[in-house]
Amino acid sequence: MVTRVQTAAINPPDVCRPLNRCWLKQFLLAGCVFGLLWSLLVVHLAQIWAFDPQYSFGWFSPILGGYLFFIRWQNRPAPRPKRSAPALCILVFCAFLLLPTWFIIQPNADWHLLTLLLASEVITITLCALYFAGGRSWIRHFAFSVCFILAAVPWFTLMEAAVIQTLQRWVTTLTIALLRLCHVPALAYGNIIQLPSGSLEVDGACSGFQSLQATLMITLFLGALYQASIHRRALLLTFGVALAFAGNVIRALTLSLIAYSQGIENIEFWHDPTGYAILALCFLLVWYFARLLCDPLPQIEFHHNQTNAFFPKRVIIHLGVWVMLVVVACEAWYRSHSSVQRERWAVKFPVSANEYSQIAFSPQELALLAFDSGQGAEWADSGDHQWTGFFFRWEKGPTRSRLLARLHRPEVCLPASGYELVESRGELTVPAGHIKMRFDATLFRSGDEMLYVYYCLWEDQAYGSAQSLSPTTFGRV
User: Fold this and answer.
1) Kind and range of the H or E element at 378?
2) Per the confidence metrics, is the pTM higher than 0.85?
3) Whether 363 contacts 388, CB under 8 Å
4) Angle between helix 112-134 and helix 85-105 axes, rounded to 10 deg
5) Which of 307, 249, 306, 298 is nearest to 278 (CA)?
6) Which tens digit of pLDDT belongs to each residue from 125-148?
């Protein structure tokens, strides 16, 4: 009898096999459900990454965040599952918030507050599921890798514009100072560098915001990869930010010297290569500094004998059904309303006005605005006021038209050309036929020049609606 008992204890595979199969099924189920949940967030962010060049680096964030999660999974602590009513309430609340958030975010893909809300909901649901599966130790262990996607979430528009404009001014000022040290005559007009061969604008791409964001993501990733302390991560982050800013000053200086020596027409050939070279150099220097600052890279250890954690099966199933219902319901509602016949509006410029002339768009402007159809004109009225009018149309499509149409606004673009926002003059209503078009009126200044800006953005509406698509008009007085 003793021998049989010992033999059964020495050969337990048949006893453990049902447990492993059960855990594997739950693990695959949880992977499918959370794969669907995270795909909603990534698909939405990908639309911003594709059309907004300031966040084009975001494509790497899911890959880097997933790699950090994979590494952390290999040395995860022993699971201590918790069944907490507050955590379940938080999960249910965030899951129900998915419906209004996903519904509203479809026509407002550029509303960054909603994007942050969607990311927060997905992250909170994931952390609650990890808490149910492994307890508080799993929350602390996986929190950074789960929240890493926030590094690629767009900033609030006003905050982003303020940072971009500040960086543009700093880059322009330092570039002018360095050019004078090189005995190159240069003057600054806002964010425009005036050279003998022409004018060079420090636009949003040259401001350093894109490289700043990309460097922030890289430093956060390397700090987590090397498992550095908080103080070392802060030092690495500071070094990365300073390096990104210095890199863009070097880029602006290099392009200015090329424009001075070879002519302003050669800038387009060197613009993108210098940007990629500076970004690659920043990455290599940050990586090298991380290796000097931090301990050696920890080895990935695969622990096959760790205790398997059970994800709450009923919660996972209900969550998966709810996420699918949210997607199907929103898609069905919008598709059922997409067949409504809509009015198309156009603008007729005063071709008989004094000094009337059409505006030709450069290839750079066409690539930047990416409109489907558009026109621009200049003219003078009877009071000898100079006017400039633009009318752009973006055809309807899955988020594309809304993002592109709202990406460039006067308060964002005009300061890049050296104009200062003086006053927001409220809303101006202009009757046109049976509709009333509403314009945002603002006043900008550049030296002694005053620029009155009237901006209007409307979607095509159903027949009988009080809205229309109208032009953006710039008037110089």
Assistant:
1) strand 373-380
2) no
3) no
4) 150
5) 249
6) 999 988 888 888 889 999 999 999
